[in-house]
Amino acid sequence: MENIMKRLNKISVENIKLEIMRTTFGNRDTFLSQLDPRVLMFWYLIFAIFPWFIYDKIVLVALLAFVTFIAAISKVSKVIIFLLCFGIASEIICYGIVAYFLGGGLEAFLALIGLTMKLATISLASIAIFGNIDPERLSDALLSWGVPGQITFAVSFGYRMVPVLIEEYNNIINSFRLRGKSPEHKGFLYWRQLLHMLKIAIYAFYPLIFNTAKRTRTTVEALEVRGFSYALQNKEVKKLKLAYLKIRLKDIAFLAGSVSYVIFLMIIVK
Amino acid sequence: MANSLTQTQVNQSKTLMLFILAMSLSGLENLVAEIIPEFQIGPIELGISSFIFIPLVLVILFDNIWVALAAPIGEIVFADLILGEFGGLGEFEEVILLTMGLYLAGRLVKDVASRKQLIIAALVGFGFTELAGTMIDIGKVWIGIEQLEAVPGLPESIVALEGIDFLVEFVITGIIFGVLPTLYFVPRLYGKLEPMLGIKPREIDDSRNPLPIAVTIGAVIAVILGTTVAFISEMGINIIEWEADFLDKFGDNFIWVPIGIAALVAVITFILAKNGKTKEAKASQEG
Amino acid sequence: MPQGIIHIEGLSFTYPGSGCPVLKNVDLEVEKGDFVAVIGSNGSGKTTLCKAMNGLIPQYISGDFAGKVEVNGLNTLETTVASLARHIAYVYQDFENQLVRSTVYEDVIFAPLNFGFADYRERGLQALKILGLEHLKDRFIWELSGGQKHLAAMAGALSLGPDIIIVDEPAAQLDPLTAVRVYEKLQILNRDYGKTIIVIEHNSEFIADYCRSVIMMDGGCVFWQKPVREALNRIDELKERNIHPPQVTQAAHLLFQSGSGKNNVGNYPIQIAESEAYFAGINLKPSCCAHSITEPSPANNREPVITFQGASYGYKTLENTTHYVLSNVDFTIYEGDRLAIVGSNGAGKSTLLKLISGIIKPQSGGVTVYDSNTRDASPENLAEIVTYIFQHPEEMFIEDSIRRDIEYFLKVRKNPNLEVLVDQVVNGLQLTELQNQNGRLLSGGQQRRASLAIGVATHPSVILLDEPTGSLDISSRKEMVAMLEYLKDRVKTVIVATHDMQLAAEWANRIAVMKDGKIIEDSDKYRVFGNPALLKEANLRPPQIVELCHDLGISPVAFSLGEFSNRLVLGKEDHHGKYYETVE
User: Fold this and answer.
1) How far apart are CA C494 and CA C333, in angstroms?
2) In Å, what is the CA distance from C568 to each residue of A17, C250, C459?
3) A144 and A225 share a domain?
4) How far is A183 from chain C (nearest CA, A)?
């Protein structure tokens, strides 16, 4: 219980700022981060969809090994990989145990191994890619594929606003605490205290909605003054914005290499 | 002074304002929920997956598709990307389902003062998203395992666990962090928030023909039910046979829960549609 | 007369739902290359006038619009706001909200890219270069200080190469030294790049130092438009509209009135730089009295309320080191203290206050409030003794009307006298008219008053105020000082963290100067403001009258105009004595 209280207090601006710094600057010099974002996303799509249609365990092992290799050279944090594997494994084990009680034997576990490898491959591919695309480039790649400008704008705006909003939320929670009253009896397993905190966590959104509304008015005026809507209606602007995206030899080599590896696997198995 | 230049610009900026507002708030809400720890047992999560009432309240107050769309976008950008948890294709699914669910909720409310409508809207909006998500999760396992039906116990196990997860989510997120706060927030914000954005508050909208909504919901439920049934028969689950073994261990038949909820939703919608009609008829008589 | 770069003819505007026009038949001409200040009391239509110049009115803010506004020859009714943005830039009062991209570079290329300029990168970089922000190019917006954000917002607008820049109250949101830096940049833009600058400004000292002409708004009309010297010499007209002429101007006027100054009506000095020469010509009679500064009364007589014992606070940086905002502070605050904590941004003032309130806990050392160590007490419990008034009043509004906000503390404690107590506070702080309004929709001064009322309603022994006069115009500021007086009999200890040296000089009986997380001086106003080296070290800008005293070699320094003129001309000793009494 104390743990939860501490975590609630940990929603601090400094931590969030650190997190943003890490996701943005953490992987600037890796191999993957040098590649074109569209190529990376296309590569991800291959490894996110293809495994679903593979049932051969050897191919699955080979795919997983390949993706793990890519993840390893792109400096994906070991903690994240561990958490990921742990999550998938516990989920699968759970299915297995329940299936065992429902009359299935060990074969249920065997059947689940394939699924585990698929999920692991897909998740690792996702972490490797999205941990290595600069968010601005990710949004540009999406824009180039026809995602509306309002939505791709959200990415940059999010990185702008999150610390501000968290700070404000934090301060409002502090206002509630400085004027509120914590329960006199903590209750069994601190449940009263927990309820008190949860209520504050919910009520704090009430003033925050008003404050954000007020803030948004200026933001939208500024967006219009700065040509945001004008750009949405103008194809030339999009072209100009995306002109820097260039597929180079590196990109082609990476994609071609990966695809041929997959094809090679298929041929060998057959 | 209302020339056409002014008019288009004003409308365009209002939409943008709603989008940014809903995106910021939903994003923050999700980020906070994400940071609060949760317990996970296999596929079942015990914790706050989101303060879903935030987008629900906004979509009910403004009844605008951009508000519905802003919620999943905010979640993805503010919470997932920043915490390094961007899920690739899974996010795409989130955008579609949550947008649909929220939009549905916004459409379902005709009178923001009616508690009944708020409850229904919140339940249906969230229920739709969550149920469809559960179906997709089950579907993924189904595709992912070769000849799933050949492994005894496994299909049931998956349905059972996903069903429990759905229930837990429905109660924690849907009711405790959905319906209840929505009931608290909507009346308190109505008429106060809109002027801050320079927007006229929603009026009681009796003119709206409830039939298309009922049809929409009906269609959606039919699709879900259809998928479920097809899935069950495909897996070769003999419901009656399965029951005996399953009931012993768990005391209930979980597959019926999501189906039951879907059916319940259908019935509620039907009643709602009928109510709307009588009201409309009354209104036209009085008018 | 040739048409100016901004040409306004018969402009009237009424906001929707309000019966009375904000602008009434305004005719105005702004010359190309001018540096204009728009002044006037609250509600005189300054911001509305400026928003009409860039087309936001009536294109986004609809209402009844009549008349003609032309910017660079373009009629604002026929040109979109976006197209007008290439001619006229606008820096908002809440400039933080106009920064919409993640990093400085992204933000500064945003507008030129949106308009499809092929050289958008060069334009962005050029804007950064003009304002000297190149070193911040890759920073996140939220990493910047307030002043840097203000300049970044300006760079974002400049990147379109507009001829006119409007800045809404730069000095209100920024601390005085940062505001000087912003004005210096505006001066460069005006002088070296030929931009026309329009600022809405309350602070006449900035106007005197940087502007060339002044537009006075009054009740929705242009009252007059004059060159700066002439404008600031209209002492009575300015004061009637709650604008305070520079202290040097007033001092010169006062000297003349008391019969010893030069008759220079209409031609008083307006800048500190010219004042030395001006006053040198007058036959001064410096006061003979070399008053010794009384020592602050010995601490051991008084009850200690708050004690810092080697308290430190910091946060983790990206490199996994800890950045200390407050390091190893030993400090005791007593009953009866009216303590002003001064220091530049990032000196640790707010952190010090937050540690007392218990919102944050020291990482090492301890903070004791009365008998309880803040480490062991929850903020809820400490709140019974200590009230913390936030820097941004909006973060204290947790309800939708200020009366409900004031009630909240008493309500959750089920206080039986709730109505009576709340009424007392509401009436005492003159909020009766406003009590049912949403705090967020009030003006800056009203918001401050409301936030103070929320704090007072908790009946604290100690009250902490973070920048209570920040972003207030002069009349609201005066009001705030009066409110602080109201606290005198109700609260045992008041601690104020502030950039406002005038406030510290007028109100405090003890001043602590902070720098880099440490307290470098702890004494009274005479020692702090009489020490130019200390002021320089802590990066503080004293009130103009104190600077004048330094320049003229008057010691001890004077803190008000009356004191100043007495010191020079009449030398009334009893007057001084009276001043010293209040120090004790």
Assistant:
1) 10
2) 54, 14, 44
3) yes
4) 10
Based on the domain organization, do A250 and A200 belong to the same domain?
no
Given CB atoms, is A175 within the 8 Å cutoff of chain C?
yes
C95 and C150 in contact (C-beta within 8 Å)?
yes
- Do A163 and A95 fall within a single domain? no
The pLDDT assigned to B228 comes to 54
Strongest mean pLDDT among A95-104, A233-242, C318-327: A233-242
Mutation to test the C interface, candidates A178, A193, A237, most C Cβ within 10 Å? A178
Q: Which of C495, C407, C397, C486 is nearest to C446 (CA)?
A: C397
Report how far residue C380's alpha carbon sits from residue C413's, in angstroms, rounded to the nearest whole number: 11
**B142 falls in which pLDDT band (50, 70, 90)?**
confident
Can you give the pTM of this predicted structure? Answer: 0.85
Q: How far apart are CA C390 and CA A48, in angstroms?
A: 49
**Domain of residue A33, residue span:** 29-133+246-269
Query: Both A115 and A71 in a single domain?
Result: yes
If you search the block for the tokens 């594929």, which residue do you land on? A145
**Residue where the block lists tokens 């990206």:** C318
Question: Within 13 Å, how many C-alpha atoms sit on residue A171's CB side?
Answer: 21
Q: How many CB atoms lie within 10 A of CB A78?
A: 9
Tell me phi and psi for residue C162, to 5 degrees.
-75, 155
In a domain, A225, yes or no: yes
| pLDDT reported for residue C461 | 92
Compute the half-sphere exposure of residue B212: CA atoms within 13 Å on the CB side of its CA: 5
Work out how many CB contacts closer than 8 A connect B with C.
Answer: 29
B7/A contact by beta carbon, under 8 A: no
ipTM for the complex shown: 0.86
A89 and A217 inside one domain? no
Tokens of C191: 């002088």
User: b vs e for C111-124, b when ≥16 Cβ sit within 10 Å of the residue's Cβ?
Assistant: bbbbbbbeebbebb
Q: How many CB atoms lie within 10 A of CB A70?
A: 21
Tokens of C515: 């720098």
Phi and psi of A248, rounded to 5°? Answer: -110, 180
The single-letter code of the amino acid at A135 is P
Domain ranges of chain B: 9-282
B 185-224 near C (Cβ less than 8 A): 188, 192, 196, 198
Enter the tokens of residue C490.
């109700």
